[in-house]
Structures are given as structure tokens and as C-alpha cells.
Amino acid sequence: MLHDGKSRRVAIVGGVRIPFCRAHSVYRDSTNQDMMTEVLSGLVRQFDLKGQTLGDVALGAVIKHSKDWNLARECVIGSGLSLRTPGVDMQRACGTSIEACIHIGNKIALGQIEAGIAGGTDSISDAPIVFDDRLRAILLNSSRGRSLLQKISPWFKLRPSFLAPQLPSVVEPRTNLSMGQSMEKTAKEFEVSREHQDQLALSSHIKAAAAYDAGFYEDIVIPFNDAEEDNNIRRDTTFEKLQALKPVFDKKTGAGTLTAGNSTPLTDGAAAVLLASEEWAAQKNLPVIAYLTYCKVAAVNFIGVDGLLMAPAYAVSEMLMDANLTLQDFDFYEIHEAFAAQAIATLKAWQSEQFCREKLGRNHPMGPIELSKLNVKGGSIAVGHPFAATGARVITTMAKLLHEKGSGRGLVSVCTAGGMGVTAILEAV
Q1: Is 415 annotated in the active site?
Q2: Same domain, yes or no: 206 and 136
Q3: C-alpha distances in angstroms, 135 versus 126, 128, 148, 210?
Q4: How many whole angstroms separate alpha carbon 372 and alpha carbon 374?
Q5: What secondary structure does DSSP assign to 297-331, as a single string?
Q6: Whether residue 210 is found in the same domain as residue 153
Q7: How confident is the model at residue 1, as a pLDDT?
Q8: Which of 60, 72, 250, 422 has the fewest Cβ atoms within 10 angstroms?
């Protein structure tokens, strides 16, 4: 697959997203295609790509309609890029757009393409509604009928219960537990206190608000549907307000610690990243703000053994071995706050001698990180979490942080449904 036996450096030129907004609010009438197309159009405008042909565009959505079977290509067609630019749909749950970055990055590194876009979108507001399989069988049998009688007869089997809709959910089919319920179990296992979770949640809101006030997101977040800022950021929240909220995933035992305040909200939004070879960026007179250097995906046995959202702990450990780095060799960390408890449990796992020895095969704990370097521009609890878009958000944020610092490296980590984790290392130019 390599043209010359050598891989090339993968440059990050920049990223764009629309404001992330709570489900059923600002984007309640927008589709995944609407949001993703707007983000691609924003990249086209920002980097003067109108009419240009890119090597590939990898996009995805976790929750999408069957009509969106070719979502990436349709978004490309509406973006202003040349129609000769291909598009491919991808999906790895909440790690979708980091996986898309890996896909595009590998093609660039192998010399197969010179530039491409990776991104993701998700809409809870426009979620597909599925009906009972028995109703579906009636519809299909009716459509197969050749005569009028054959088309009508299946409908005699219709019952009112068949009309009950089945809404999308984040329940794991193997455990029948929601992400929140699974995380409650992990929080108890790692002894993550309610106070610690609420402190992290408060910090997330404070940092996100400060980042907007300082203009950090001006060239990253483009307005859409009258939204100019992530509308989940709570500028007026306090530790006391967060402490007053009741647990939402474990209401029976009295030991629940996960609340609406220390968990990510259901969110609509889209984000994308432009990646390229250094040569292509130079020819187009475009900046290189960071490099994508290492990536790793891992999975855990979450069916009665490991925590559902603990795979990043494994992925990061393996990635650091590949890169010959320690956990402390980073200037910034972007760890997805699916729940405050998830981020805290991951940090505690890396500090646990037993976990590192028995689970990660290490002789010593990986150790702590400097919390002042964690999610410095706000995390998913404040910003929101459109499932497939979060990876592109954290990659874009990290790349800009490294560009502004002018040196160093950053670690990004996203946990996903199905007991998986997707991680990456970015380095400054």
C-alpha cells in the first residue's frame, strides 16, 4: 500500500463545528444532514476550498434514519466542495469522528490521498422512530401482495399494540443497562464520590464559559440557526446547585451519585477536522497547527467483568507503550466527560497499582496527571455531547491549544458504547 515504504506526517489544518445545543431546543427542526453540511460548508469557507477536490471525506452519525445511508456523500454534495470528492459513512459510537480522523490520517500517511475531512454529527431531536416488528411484517407482506386481496389480508392481523413506537435508547443489548446505570456500577467500584463528580462538573462549566469569553472558540464555532454558543453551558451554576440535584440512574438504593448535572446532556450538533499532508498544506498556503501522531482503539469485556466505559484506560496505556511515553509527558489532556464519574474513574485507574498490574500488565502505576491541564476549555458536561461529533471537537480543541502554545503534545480520549475506547496523540508543529 505504501508508495515509497515510508509513512508521511499527518497535519491538522483546522476544525469547525456548530454550537452544540441541547436536544429538542435550537436544532429541533434540523437533521443530521443539515448540521453536517453546514459544518463542511464552514470548513470550505474558512480554508478556501470551494470547488476543490479532496481525497476523501469520512463522516458518521450514531443515531440516523435509514434514508441517511449515504450521509457523508450527500453532505459533501451540499458543502461547496467539488462533486468529485468522495464520502464514506463510518460509525464507532461516541468515538466515530476520532475513528474518522484515524481513517483519513492513515490514507494521508500512506500516500493514498493528500487531504481529507473527518467529522461527525448527531441529532436526538430528529431521532428515527421505529415501530413494532409485527407492524413491519404487515407492511412488508402487504407490499408483496399481487392482488388486492393479498394486499389487504395482512392488515386483518393488526392490533393496537403494534402501533406503539420504539424510541432509540442507549441501553446495551448485552446487559440491558443504560450507560448511566453501567457508570453507577463503575463509580461504586472505584469509590468515586458525588462531591468529586460535582466539582469536576462545575469546573467544566467555568472553563467553557471562560473560553468563550476569551474568544478561544471564535474561529472554531460557526453560528447556526441563531445559536452562537453551546447552550448547555451554565454560567450561573454553583457547587451548591449541583449538590441539590437528585440521582437519575440509581434511585432505589439511595447510593446513586450520577445526576443530570454531572452527566452529559442529550445534545444535537456536528463537527469536522481538515487533515492533510504537509506538502498539500504548503501548496494551498494553509497553516499546519498540529500533527496527529499516534492512535489506539481498545475494547473491554463489560459483560460482568469490566466497566462499560473503561476501555480508554486500556487504549491510552497501549498507545503510550507504542509511543514510548509516560502519562505525564503531555501539556494538555482532553478526556471526554461522558459522565464526571467516567473521567474520574479513568484517572483513578491509572493511579491504581492493582489495576495497572492486573488489567494493564504494567509493573508500576501510570500515575496522576496535573488537573490544571485537563479539559482546559471545558469538557462534554458543559459543552454537550452529540455522540459522533465529540471526537472532532476534542481533536480541534487540542490542535488549537498546541498551536497557541507553540510546543508540546496532547492526549485525547473518548469512551464509547459497547465497551470501547478511542484515543490519540497530537503534537505541536
Answers
A1: yes
A2: no
A3: 22, 16, 19, 51
A4: 6
A5: EEE--TTTTS-TT-HHHHHHHHHHHHHT--TTS-S
A6: no
A7: 41
A8: 250
